[in-house]
Amino acid sequence: MNWAINKLPSFHSMDLRHKVNDELYETTISKRKREIRVGKPRITTRYNGAINYNWPEETTYESLDVSTITASLLRADIINVAKMNGKLLSKQEIAEQENPQINWEQEEQVEVPKIKSERNCWNVVLTEEEKNLISEFLEV
Q1: Domain ranges of the chain
Q2: How confident is the model over 48-58, as pLDDT tens digits?
Q3: Region 92-118: what's the mean pLDDT?
Q4: What is the SS3 assignment for 111?
Q5: Residue 69 backbone phi and psi in degrees, to 5
Q6: CA 41/CA 31 separation, integer angstroms
Q7: Where are the alpha helices (DSSP H) in 36-87?
Q8: Can you tell me the distance from the alpha carbon of 64 to that of 7, in angstroms, rounded to the nearest whole number?
Q9: What is the dihedral of CA 6, 9, 15, 17, to 10 degrees?
Q10: How confident is the model at residue 105 (pLDDT cuts 50, 70, 90)?
Q11: Against a cut of 0.85, is the pTM above it?
Q12: Is 38 left (phi over 0), alpha (psi -120 to 50) or beta?
């Protein structure tokens, strides 16, 4: 909490977790210039042994940043879900779930057609499926 008040950069936000009676509460803290806003607390998990964060060992007050907090929340969620399912994960299993790797060699490579325009630029021609994905994304 002290870090959020003193070190959270302006126009950034972070999630803050706190445990009360085996219930894990989470809220979002946002900072805008000198103003700090705290969202409504919500219960994230209800079981004994849930962890708030999973910090890298080398993390200190001075080296902490928003991306470290976000990553530690994700690792804690992975560990908590595994614990609820009766599993204990190794560091490697946690890393695999945190950063799923895509095998690009197995992906089908498609040649993207290009058309030269009058402005001496290349225009990329989108497929109908790509246009639909873009329009769905923009509607959200």
Answers
A1: 2-98
A2: 778 888 888 89
A3: 65
A4: coil
A5: -65, -45
A6: 17
A7: 66-84
A8: 9
A9: -20
A10: low
A11: no
A12: beta
Distance separating alpha carbons of residues 126 and 129, to the nearest angstrom: 8
- Give the mean pLDDT of 17-28: 87
Q: Which two tokens stand for residue 36?
A: 């700090």
Q: For residues 41 and 20, what is the distance between their CA atoms, to the nearest angstrom?
A: 12
- Give the integer Cα–Cα distance in Å for 71 and 15: 11
Cα 24-73-38 angle, rounded to 5 deg: 65
The residue assigned the tokens 């085996």 is 22
Report how far apart, in Å, the C-alpha atoms of 63 and of each of 7, 69, 82, 84, 93 are. 10, 11, 28, 31, 25
pLDDT band at residue 31 under the 50/70/90 scheme: very high
From 31, 12, 15, select the one nearest 77 (Cα to Cα).
Answer: 15
CA dihedral 41, 44, 46, 52 (to 10 degrees): -90
Q: Select the more confidently predicted residue: 115 or 64.
A: 64
Question: In this predicted structure, what is the pLDDT of residue 120?
Answer: 56
The Cα–Cα gap between 38 and 90 comes to 34
